[in-house]
Structure formats: C-alpha cells, structure tokens
Design brief:
single chain; about 300 residues; eight-stranded mixed β-sheet
Length: about 300
C-alpha cells in the first residue's frame, strides 16, 4: 500500500495521463516507490504476490543519463556496500511495476546491485494501459532493439559509478525482457551470464527488431540459461529446439548455454502476481538463476 501522503500525489498524476510530463512523473513515482501494477495485468493475485522487504537495502528510484535523456530506473542493493556484482533486471511489457521492483530487492538480498531500467519510457507509460493489444501496438512495438541496447549500456555505466563491479555483470529478464536478455548477452562483451525467462526466440524482423535471439545465438559473451514453460502457448517448444541447435554450433559461451523446460508451466510462470504463477517452477528457476550466476563468475 502507498503511504497516505504519497497516495494523494499519485492520484493527482492520473488525470492528464496523455501528457509526456505526466507519464514520465507517474513512471518515475511508481519506480521510486516500488508499488503498483500495470492496468493490463489486473486483477492481481494478491494471495501469491511476494513482498520483499527493503530492510537492510538501499532501494528506490534513480535517474540514469542516456546521452542527455533522463531514464528512470529502480535499483536495490545491500546498504552501505560497494564492489557489488551487478544484475540488470529487464521487465515484461508492463514496465517497472511492483513485481519487477520486488525482484530487484530479491537480488539485492542475495548480494547484488540490481537495476531495472524503464526501457519503454520514451515511447509511453506502459503501466497506464488497460488493454494489452493497445499497449503492444502503441508502445512496445515502437521500441527499437538498438535503443534498448544503448539504455542497458548506460545502466551498466551508472552501476560502475554507483557501487557496482561491472566485471561481474549479469542480465536477466522476463517475457519481453527475456528476449532482450539473449540480445544483450551478445551485445555487451562484458556480460558474464544471463538468465532468460520465457523470452521469445524467433519472430518477424524489421527495422526496429532486425535480429532475434536465434540470429545471434552463436556469438554470446556469456552463457545464457533459458527457463521456459512446456505449456507456454506463445513459445512453441520447437523454437527452443531450434535455438539449442544454433547454440551448439556457436562459440564457447553459446555452447555452454542451456535450457530448462518445466513441462506443465505456462508463460509467465514466475510472475507471482498473475494467475499464470507456478510456485514450484518459479522457486526452482530462481535457485537455478542464482546458481548459474555464481557458477559463471558473477557472484
């Protein structure tokens, strides 16, 4: 729940949501507080949503400069510590709402500087949309992969200047962020490991999304662990098998990558605030993610 004094401020931002300033302020406020969910995800499964305390952490909003553009992000880290391993946390299509903020706090509790940048901020306020199809058409489909890579590079630079040891760099993401995890593991030579949660592997190519994970699979900086659901109707298992073939013919990091498929898990099985949540698969995947980072020199 929002504190009462901040609730009134948050409510005041809702009218005029079409203005760029209003959208930016709402996004920043949500990121700063680590509260709220995107309208498209309602209703929320409150009984399963995990709440990680910020006690012992430095957590909240930061602003990252990307060539003059001020990008909001949510970061969490053990309070008072520096030289921390860094993990980039890439959101679903709904942006940095409470679930993503909580996930950063979980990584911080494990000893990481975890940062979740608002990667849709230039295109719109993903959390204000009540229709998923409209969100996809008006915001997500307009986000260039090149923009995302640049934003993540700027996030890494920010981490290096704010207590992070970017020689120990990891990236993880969910759904849309899972796809970007694969791409960034090929883009940044300093990535030591990635964990992609049910990110799309193949798809249409255009000027904004010129390559898909299968196209860059052979050339990864660090190995990627893919966590996928066998009951995911949006990501056919045949595409996972194609990705395995592409990885097997690649460089050392590509060949070291692997998949874990949870046979009965649907898409978004880690999203504890949604009906798709599957606790057993989510818990197992989380443990595997932490073990993967440790085994590959991040932790």
């Amino acid at each position: 729940m929002l504190r009462e004094d901040l609730q009134s401020e948050f409510n005041a931002l809702l009218p005029g949501r079409s203005t760029e300033a209003g959208a930016t302020r709402r996004t920043a406020l949500k990121a700063a507080l680590g509260v709220g969910y995107a309208a498209s995800t309602l209703p929320i499964m409150a009984q399963t949503a995990i709440k990680t305390s910020s006690e012992g952490l430095t957590a909240g909003e930061v602003t990252i400069d990307v060539n003059g553009f001020k990008m909001a992000a949510y970061r969490a880290a053990p309070a008072g510590k520096t030289g921390l391993p860094v993990v980039l946390v890439l959101s679903e299509i709904f942006g940095v709402h409470e679930y993503i903020a909580d996930t950063t706090r979980r990584f911080a509790k494990a000893g990481y500087l975890a940062i979740a940048p608002e990667l849709f901020q230039r295109q719109g306020d993903a959390q204000s949309y009540g229709e998923m199809a409209k969100l996809m058409a008006e915001v997500i489909s307009k986000v260039p992969d090149a923009q995302v890579m640049g934003d993540l590079d700027a996030t890494v630079k920010w981490a290096a200047a704010n207590g992070g040891d970017v020689r120990k760099l990891a990236v993880t993401g969910f759904c849309w962020g899972g796809r970007q995890t694969w791409l960034y593991a090929a883009h940044n030579k300093n990535v030591k490991a990635g964990v992609a949660w049910y990110g799309r592997l193949v798809g249409a190519q255009n000027d904004l999304t010129p390559k898909n994970p299968i196209d860059i699979a052979a050339h990864l900086a660090g190995p990627v662990l893919g966590l996928y659901g066998g009951a995911d109707t949006g990501i056919p298992l045949e595409t996972v098998e194609k990705m395995k073939v592409a990885l097997a013919s690649g460089d050392a990091a590509a060949r070291a990558s692997k998949f874990v498929v949870y046979p009965d898990a649907p898409h978004a099985f880690h999203a504890d605030y949604r009906p798709s949540y599957r606790k057993e698969a989510a818990d197992d995947g989380w443990k595997r993610a932490l073990d993967w980072f440790k085994a590959n020199g991040v932790a």
